[in-house]
Amino acid sequence: SLIITDECINCDVCEPECPNEAISQGEEIYQIDPNKCTECVGHYDEPQCVQVCPVDCIPKDANHVESEDMLWVKYEKLTGNK
Ligand code: SF4
Ligand code: SF4
């Protein structure tokens, strides 16, 4: 999963870009649900939120490190696609 850091300026452009609806507005900044973020695996070649974020505040989440295989499994669970 990726994570949104406190550098987030609440610009709102990432939320509609997420294919997994993993991004939502939190109490102070936007947040990513690690159970829903596939790092865009299965949908796009690049993480869409990272592509659009103007302040570059969406790194990989060190507390939710996942292999490509794990991200594919999550994608399959979320979408029902194989
Ligand atoms: Fe959503 Fe992709 Fe960003 Fe994860 S990397 S939050 S799946 S847009
Ligand atoms: Fe925050 Fe970046 Fe998303 Fe804008 S695009 S809401 S700055 S994480």
Q: Care to describe what's here?
A:
The chain has 82 residues and is an alpha+beta fold. The chain has helices at 48-52, 68-79; strands spanning 23-25, 30-32. Strands 1-2 form a two-stranded antiparallel ribbon. Strand 1 (23-25) and strand 2 form a beta hairpin. It is globular and about 35 Å long. The two termini are 20 Å apart. The model has no long low-confidence stretch (mean pLDDT 97). Bound molecules: iron/sulfur cluster (2 copies).
Q: What is the compact description of this entry?
A:
By secondary structure, the protein is an alpha+beta fold.
List keywords for this structure.
two-stranded antiparallel sheet, Alpha-Beta Plaits, single chain, globular, 82 residues, alpha+beta, binds iron/sulfur cluster
Determine and state the CATH class.
Alpha Beta
Bound molecules: iron/sulfur cluster
CATH architecture: 2-Layer Sandwich
Largest sheet strand order: 1-2
Specify Rg, calculated over alpha carbons. 12 Å
Annotation, overall tally of beta strands: 2
> What oligomeric state do the depicted chains represent?
single chain
Strand coverage percent: 5-15%
Number of helices: 2
The averaged pLDDT comes out at 97
Q: N-to-C SSE series?
A: EEHH
